[in-house]
Amino acid sequence: MAKMCEICGKKPLYGSKISHAHNVSSRRFNPNLHTVRARIGSQTKRIRVCSSCLKAGKVTKAK
Questions:
Q1: Cα–Cα distance between 43 and 6 in angstroms, integer?
Q2: Which of 7, 22, 52, 57 is deepest in the core (most CB within 10 A)?
Q3: Residue 13 and residue 1 in contact, taking contact as beta carbons nearer than 8 Å
């Protein structure tokens, strides 16, 4: 399973970790994903959604 939001398609971003001595190594910024039971059409599915989509109300949670 990819670390990707199934609503907006947000994926990991890559950057550099820089120490005080300016040693540079690569790092990865992962999206804040949550596994949620959501209503998709008329059925309930388990999807991985980022927290910004949950806050924006792009997902209808199933009960």
A1: 16
A2: 7
A3: no
At residue 11, what is the residue type? K
CATH domain 1-63 topology: Ribosomal Protein L24e; Chain: T; (2.30.170)
pTM score above 0.90? no
Question: What SS3 state is found at 9?
Answer: coil
What is the tens place of the pLDDT at every residue in 27-46?
999 999 999 999 998 999 99
Three-state secondary structure call for residue 51: helix
Report the length, in residues, of the chain: 63
d(CA 39, CA 63): 9
Q: What is the rounded CA–CA span in Å between residue 43 and residue 54?
A: 19
Q: End-to-end CA distance of the chain: give it in Å, rounded.
A: 25
